[in-house]
């Protein structure tokens, strides 16, 4: 069974990580979540569950306005050929979340670690960052340094990339 929201919070607490969570109606897209900006401080994200041609899996966690060129992303993350979206069934079996709820917190369920977390440097160096806590009816705020500690505690050393630089440079 995948971890529940309560089990996620207990795991974070066990690591000494504090969070704040706001409940809200279900949100499925970045556009829908932007309506909550007055109630939730910190940076927000878009999260992509991807796989390459050889079946390697990636969770791309980027600042919500980051430009991600899926046709060239494989060159930056070490994937075998172009990447495509992983199926809902694979995402649910690996991360324990449904489409619309993709979150780096889902790696609590990826044991042993099978996927590579690709984290936007903008998020990694921010103060507060926000993600769904395994469900899209809430948003949890966590310090960026604590997010990194959480990822490492689950066996997921993130690959840090700057998506803003990629958007500015046609060579990447």
Structure description:
Helix content is 27%, strand content 23%. The protein has helices spanning 5-14, 30-33, 73-77, 88-95, 121-124, 144-153, 163-168, and strands at residues 20-23, 45-51, 57-63, 84-85, 115-120, 128-131, 138-143, 159-161. The protein has a five-stranded mixed beta sheet. Strands 1-7-6 form a three-stranded antiparallel beta sheet. It is globular and about 40 Å long. The relative contact order is 0.23.
Structural class: alpha/beta
Spell out the helices and strands N to C: HEHEEHEHEHEEHEH
Widest sheet: strand ordering: 4-2-3-5-8
**Helical run tally:** 7
Averaged pLDDT: 89
The N- to C-terminal Cα distance equals 40 Å
Q: Note the overall shape.
A: globular
Number of strands: 8
Share of residues in helices: 25-40%
Note poorly predicted spans: 166-172
> What does the main sheet amount to?
5 strands, mixed
Binned strand content:
15-25%
**What value does the Rg take, in angstroms?**
15 Å
Question: What key attributes describe this structure?
Answer:
single chain; 172 residues; alpha/beta; five-stranded mixed sheet; three-stranded antiparallel sheet; 7 helices; disordered C terminus
């Amino acid at each position: 069974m995948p971890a529940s929201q309560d089990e996620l919070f207990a795991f974070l607490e066990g690591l000494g990580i504090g969070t704040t969570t706001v409940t809200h109606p279900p949100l499925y897209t970045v556009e829908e979540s932007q309506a909550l900006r007055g109630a939730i401080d910190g940076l927000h994200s878009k999260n992509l569950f991807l796989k390459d041609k050889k079946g390697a899996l990636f969770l791309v966690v980027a600042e919500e306005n980051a430009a991600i060129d899926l046709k060239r992303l494989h060159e930056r993350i070490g994937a075998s050929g172009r990447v495509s979206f992983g199926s809902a069934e694979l995402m649910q079996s690996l991360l324990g979340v449904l489409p619309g709820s993709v979150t780096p917190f889902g790696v609590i369920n990826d044991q042993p670690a099978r996927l590579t977390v690709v984290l936007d440097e903008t998020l990694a160096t921010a103060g507060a960052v926000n993600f769904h806590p395994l469900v899209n009816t809430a948003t949890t705020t966590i310090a960026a340094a604590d997010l990194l500690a959480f990822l490492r505690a689950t066996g997921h050393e993130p690959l840090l990339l700057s998506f803003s630089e990629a958007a500015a440079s046609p060579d990447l």
